[in-house]
Amino acid sequence: MNTTTTRRAWVVGGSIVAALALVFGVFQVVNVLARERTTEVQAFPASGVRLLDVSSPNGTVEVLGGDVDEITVTARISHGLRRTSHRAAVEGNVVRVRSSCPVLSTWCGVEYRITVPGDVAVAADVSNGRLIVRDVAGGVRADATNGAVELARLSGDLDVSTDNGRVESTGLRSDRVVARTANGRVRLEFSESPTAVEARSANGRVDVVLPNTTDAYRVDLDTDNGSTDAGVRTDPSSGRSVVARTNNGDVTVRYATG
Known about the structure:
This protein is mainly beta. Helices cover 12% and strands 50% of the residues. The protein has an eleven-stranded mixed sheet with strand order 1-4-7-3-9-11-13-15-17-21-19, with no helix packed on it. It has a ten-stranded mixed sheet with strand order 5-6-2-8-10-12-14-16-20-18, with no helix packed on it. Strand 5 and strand 6 form a beta hairpin.
């Protein structure tokens, strides 16, 4: 290939790249100008509802239990050039909440705040954002891809996991708890003695805090890189068990102080 042909090829290639960059830049500017935030509030009679099932790709999901006779879904929606999808409806004994993002939408997201009666169970799937659940007795099953899971004053059985984020809890009265994260800390704090606890992290410390009662536990602690400390009453024949493991970090099981 001679010099002239090479130069022409570089010019054509550079022109294509510049055109693509211009198109992308214009698209981004239009997307920013099209950004919009809206709020939608829906209320459903709680009678007969046993489960809240919520799935969201982007945004914090907060679920609050209380002495209420309605389920209220407040959605703060961010739209870009294309509209973000949000839907909440009653299907049998389930309130199902869903949101989704269109292709190439920079500003897509929904921040949910949902109030439910305290005895309703919760199933939550959050891809990018925090999951917060408080004052629920009906049990919680939760999966997060990229975000923290924060729990407070729950009394139903728990099965929660996140791929990238911490799992934190306070005031648990739950009998059976499974909490897992691939990258982050796990901290479970109980106000009543549990029957079975499993807390695992691939990369982060694990702490289980128990009420100081006469109960003893079968304790199984392990870490590949860190220390372990079982500062509670132990009994290998106990019907109560705590499994706490991590690949990288300290592992402690102790009593609450103060």
